[in-house]
Design a protein that fits this description.
The structure holds 2 protein chains of 2 kinds. Chain A is an alpha+beta fold. Chain A is built from 4 helices and 9 strands, in the order βαββββαβββαβα. Chain A has a single domain, classed as Hypothetical Protein Pfu-838710-001 (Beta Barrel). Helix content of chain A is 21%, strand content 36%. By secondary structure, chain B is of the alpha+beta class. Classes of the chains: A alpha+beta, B alpha+beta.
Chain lengths: 223, 258
């Protein structure tokens, strides 16, 4: 999987989306090769707080999240479940992703969460990018799409999520750091303000799920 | 999806005879069944809203703690979950998942020759990874059988979720489930029309269990459910005198954490 960095441009005002401006910058600054449209879907659950006694001295455990993520363009046959591990030190942080077959199995798992595991997990939101745009510019691939929340007519655009990936040969070492810097330099050239950046952990797990983890971090829309 | 079930008990000394009769009915060789089952329960302790037993002369206090009302709404049953690993390896040394993938003819070079399907401790990689070692974990959920069921078979909601990649056991810890026990299940399986027949010996029991199961994709469609019931009853009739199969007490199949 090529190294990527994700950016999120939140919607600042009700009427305008950051997307047209970004696309404009891309198409005027470069002569990009247009790639097919892309999409993603995320269903987010939050852990139900454990029943509390009225003892205020015991701090509440922080909420954990469970995401069911579908990235059909890179992974057409699988969906991913990503869980924030519990805060116990024994949990290996890499242990928090599994993949399931897309389609019926994922639907079954979602149904199970909603109908029978309700006491543990509550559904929070549904996020999707429907008709994302993608371009290839030299050794870089840039994908941008409006991240919409909700279904049907009541959709709310939370912002624009962008993935910039470097498709060329990996640089000097295998740690991917030089590649990430290349990507960040590419992004800086576009001179887009107000984006939140998401990069992979220094320690790459090499289990094939690194890009999935990156998406899961970005899609939590924290802060 | 839903599952319709009938269960029966077979004493050890009649196991061979019953197996051949089943093979005759199903017109197939019994297939080996060998699973490693890990049982998990949520780490969170079960809490139940306190119930007042008997009548009370007291007027309901208006000063109920508002937190308690919210908690009452989100409390419900907590269930055990099973992680099941299929350990059956055929003559080519391929596990069940690999055989299934062979049938689907996946493209790409992810079909590796794994020596045995029993190397369950190694976390697996996504199918697109060049050195992926296919694993055979399935996450299984079984609901308590329906109450007030007027059908002559057990009816319960089930979910079987195959895990294609990732460390299943570590994931369960991340999900805040703890492993309570593990055992191996060995026996045979056969298929007769829509019925899945399992004959296995539960851990530390001197007899065998015969399980007849039909899976119905949509439990809300009465026509489908009735068809399933009919098939099960027909097989029950065929097995009259050989093994008595019937609806088992709901409490025996209760998967709720107490």
């Amino acid at each position: 999987m090529p190294t990527a960095v994700l950016y999120f441009l939140p919607t600042t005002s009700a009427d305008t989306s950051p997307l047209p401006d970004l696309i404009n910058r891309i198409t005027t600054h470069y002569d990009p090769f247009v790639l097919p449209r892309w999409s993603l879907r995320q269903r987010l659950f939050r852990s139900t707080p454990a029943p509390r006694t009225s003892d205020d001295n015991i701090p509440a455990t922080p909420a954990r999240h469970l995401q069911i993520l579908s990235l059909p363009d890179d992974h057409p046959n699988e969906c991913f479940i990503i869980v924030t591990p519990s805060s116990g030190a024994t949990t290996d942080p890499a242990a928090n992703v599994i993949s399931l077959p897309a389609g019926q199995s994922t639907d079954e798992f979602t149904q199970l969460l909603v109908s029978r595991l309700g006491p543990l997990w509550q559904q929070r939101q549904l996020l999707a990018v429907v008709d994302g745009l993608a371009y290839e510019i030299g050794d870089f691939k840039i994908k941008a799409g409006e991240l919409k929340q909700g279904v049907g007519g009541a959709q709310l655009v939370r912002g624009v999520v962008v993935e910039v990936a470097y498709l060329g040969e990996i640089g000097s070492g295998h740690d991917g750091e030089p590649t990430e810097e290349l990507i960040m330099a590419f992004w800086d050239e576009l001179n887009v303000k107000g984006a939140k950046e998401f990069r992979g952990d220094k320690r790459k797990e090499e289990d094939g799920f690194d890009n999935v983890r990156l998406w899961s971090m970005a899609l939590l829309l924290k802060g | 999806m839903h599952e319709l079930l009938l269960h029966g008990a077979v004493p050890s000394n009649r196991h061979g005879q019953v197996l051949s009769i089943l093979a005759g009915i199903a017109a197939m060789q019994p297939q080996p069944l060998h699973e490693r089952r890990l049982i998990y329960k949520p780490t969170r302790p079960v809490t139940r809203p306190s119930m007042q037993v008997g009548g009370s002369q007291a007027v309901q206090s208006k000063q109920m703690n508002p937190m308690q009302t919210v908690q009452g709404a989100i409390q419900g049953d907590l269930f055990y979950l099973h992680l099941v690993e299929d350990l059956v390896v055929d003559s080519q040394g391929k596990g069940d998942m690999e055989r299934k993938k062979d049938e689907e003819k996946t493209t790409g070079s992810e079909m590796m020759d794994s020596g045995d399907g029993g190397d369950e401790h190694q976390p697996s990689l996504p199918t697109s990874h060049p050195t992926a070692k296919p694993q055979n974990w399935t996450l299984q959920f079984r609901d308590i059988p329906e109450a007030g069921n007027r059908r002559p078979v057990t009816v319960r909601l089930i979910a079987d979720v195959p895990i294609t990649a990732g460390n299943a056991e570590a994931f369960m810890s991340a999900l805040e489930y703890t492993q309570t026990s593990t055992h191996h299940l060995q026996g045979h399986r056969l298929t007769h029309n829509a019925i899945s027949i399992l004959l296995f010996q539960p851990p530390s029991q001197p007899l065998y269990i015969l399980q007849l199961a039909v899976r119905v994709a949509d439990g809300t469609k009465p026509a489908l459910m009735d068809r399933g019931v009919k098939e099960l009853m027909a097989l029950k009739e065929q097995l009259k005198g050989v093994v008595d199969v019937d609806v088992v007490d709901r409490a025996v199949l209760d998967t709720r954490v107490r």
